Amino acid sequence: MGLMKAQEGIVVKKFGGTSVGSIERIEAVAERILQDTKAGQLPVVVASAMSGETNRLVRLAADIDPFYRGLAYDMLLASGEQVSIALLAMALEKRGLKAIPLLAYQVGIQTDSIFSKARIQEVKGQRLLELVKQGIIPVVAGFQGVTIDDRITTLGRGGSDTTAVALAASLGCEACEIYTDVPAVYTADPRLVPKAQEIPVLSFEEMMEMASLGSKVLHFRCVELAVKFGVKIHVRSTFERREGTWVVPEGERMEAPVVSSVTHDAQTVVFKIFPVPFGPGFLAQLFERLAEKGVVVDIITQSQNEEGQRLAFSVNEEDRPLAEQVLRQQVEDHSQIVVMDQMAKISTVGVGMRNHPGVASRFFKVLHDLEVPVHLVTTSEIKISAVIDKSNLEVAARALHQAFSLEES
Amino acid sequence: MGLMKAQEGIVVKKFGGTSVGSIERIEAVAERILQDTKAGQLPVVVASAMSGETNRLVRLAADIDPFYRGLAYDMLLASGEQVSIALLAMALEKRGLKAIPLLAYQVGIQTDSIFSKARIQEVKGQRLLELVKQGIIPVVAGFQGVTIDDRITTLGRGGSDTTAVALAASLGCEACEIYTDVPAVYTADPRLVPKAQEIPVLSFEEMMEMASLGSKVLHFRCVELAVKFGVKIHVRSTFERREGTWVVPEGERMEAPVVSSVTHDAQTVVFKIFPVPFGPGFLAQLFERLAEKGVVVDIITQSQNEEGQRLAFSVNEEDRPLAEQVLRQQVEDHSQIVVMDQMAKISTVGVGMRNHPGVASRFFKVLHDLEVPVHLVTTSEIKISAVIDKSNLEVAARALHQAFSLEES
């Protein structure tokens, strides 16, 4: 990552799509950065595309070819951030600040060449540091990278968070600010569970699980990178000045509750296939093909009896058409494929679960008492997840939130 | 320009904003390129932003600061072409062709650092040639460049034409195709003069004059570059397969009419200032300030009598706010500034004028007979221009078109 010695006062600030979603909001963000500058900070700004813009671009591409992925697709999507950083830089300059918008290739945010889901390999922080030393605010395009042979890549949805943490790491910063349209990370989605509480401190591990389980607040790779480089993340509101949620190494938190949050993902699709050919060859090939297409497979279960081998797996709704296409090509004619949509995944997450073996039984008892059928299950040391019908999501989330005493936290 | 030996079969094809203005049109352009490929051509494609997109971006910038020009502004505008080339490359790949979208920095279209009106200094055609040799169609972003220190620039309105000619020159091509929404260059704007005729062949010089006098068909610098590198330009319709207008060196045309076209610019504003300080110091400083702001001053007249010195000059309507701002700063309080808007410039152009000294008198006689007042005048060897009231434009254009026998051409 080309780590540098920290320059006193540098703060990486990432503003999401809703924070820069209109000219008025861009002006408000610029005003906030001006105040921070007056307070002595040396900001390095990262911005996402204006909200709605990435979807507009995705629709344009889909009108030509809904299955197209690759270099042209990433170049298309990367244009969204180019617009927002240019506008934000103008708004800063209007306030008498010096600002320069920078694209990934101009900063040197180098990634691998897996289009649409590229991983950052190196950030050359030197150019940023030089600008900061000259009193200039770098305004960096989030979400995008560049391969070693000069091709534009994108980091996947929410990739701007990852950009921010990578910049903070390369600049030797202790922390990174992620500004968003909610004031903090909550114990559950407040739209689903009205009694959800703000979480003041979370561990990296919990945040990683939450991100991978459907919490929209932070991108998974962003937290992964934060862990790797020990960069604390401060999730806070663009529209209020108070502190939000700090995401920190586990040792830095005073006490951890057994369960920190109830997290859900309402965009789940389950595929069931029966019979599938015996032996690992078929499965290996199927999941290889899915991976090649960029489909992320979540929970996989496999079982067999005298009738044959059964397979079930879940993917995000977004990947459904691609997954179905691959499946039809790989599965033989006599196999039956059942697609279950209108599914949701609900999970409880908490590092405290390590020392409390009763969490799983309580989790399933809550669902059983509500007569909520469970379709797929997966667990780890610090989380339990179940795929249930989307129609049961709200009642299950509220009951779990209450059962694990999150209302009082 | 890094000229290379011509590769047999390479044809640079530039598609303007209306040609790629919707997904349907992008598909139609891709279809046309497919046919050309089947006929043995090796296309190198240049595209403008989708029509309306650049204006949308300009409005966003103006909402923040209507006077802002510079690095951030050019980066903002350059995003438009990024979208259209990515979509066009997808549409080509959908048809089984191999295509790669390329931004200016990826091609190596190097410019000076005059933002918004940058000039191309060098094109590194090597990368394009390598792609073509691999059977790949490069789809290059028009209108944009990159400075030697990696900053994105734009070439001014219509700059994609310039990009196309510069690529053709660097690839050693004899000609370059400019596809547009009209089938050819006309003797006058057909919306203004219904009897306007298509012009099969024009000389570089005439086209340059027409471009600088307000004809929207080709960008001035594009023709200038075509002259410099001897690249013929073929202006033709995106929607029809027949030939349009060839723009060629003067010697290649069989016979030239006295006047080739009546050209107009309906976006003219005249400033009149009285009195202005005597001596050249004031004028030098005023026009220097205007140039710094990127305002192109067109016709200038100056006169003096015992009352003092008078100055009048014209600019494009687009530059009016900037010009007015500079003028107010430079002119002393007791000077009077009159802004005349609703003006138009009307011109006749033709290389044949060199040998026909009666053209000017006929030009002014036509305007006189119509009782059209003339506010400013300028002439060159091959053109006569007059600034008149916009309300007189139509009648003047039709009368001049008839007087110079263009209806029969």
Q: Summarize the largest interface: chains and residue counts.
A: A-B, 36 and 36 residues
Quaternary assembly:
homodimer
Shape label of chain A: globular
Low-confidence stretches of chain A: none
User: What is the CATH architecture term of the largest domain in chain A?
Assistant: 3-Layer(aba) Sandwich
Helical region count of chain A?
Answer: 12
Name of the CATH first level of the largest domain in chain A: Alpha Beta
Count of discrete structural domains of chain A: 2
Encode the helix/strand succession of chain A as letters.
Answer: EHEHHEHEEHEEEHEEHHEEEHEEHEHEEH
How would you sum up this structure in a few lines?
By secondary structure, the first copy, chain A, is of the alpha/beta class. Chain A is built from twelve helices and 18 strands. The mean pLDDT of chain A is 92.
List the helices and strands and how they pair.
Two copies of one chain form a homodimer.
Chain A: E1 10-15, H1 23-38, E2 42-47, H2 53-64, H3 71-94, E3 98-102, H4 104-107, E4 109-111, E5 120-123, H5 126-133, E6 136-141, E7 144-146, E8 152-154, H6 159-170, E9 175-180, E10 201-203, H7 204-212, H8 220-229, E11 232-237, E12 245-248, E13 261-276, H9 280-292, E14 297-305, E15 308-316, H10 320-330, E16 336-349, H11 359-369, E17 376-380, E18 383-389, H12 393-403
Parallel strand pairs in A: 1-2, 1-9, 2-6, 3-6, 9-11, 10-12
Antiparallel strand pairs in A: 4-5, 7-8, 11-12, 13-15, 13-16, 14-15, 16-18, 17-18
Helix pairs in contact in A: 1-3, 2-3, 6-8, 7-8, 9-10, 11-12
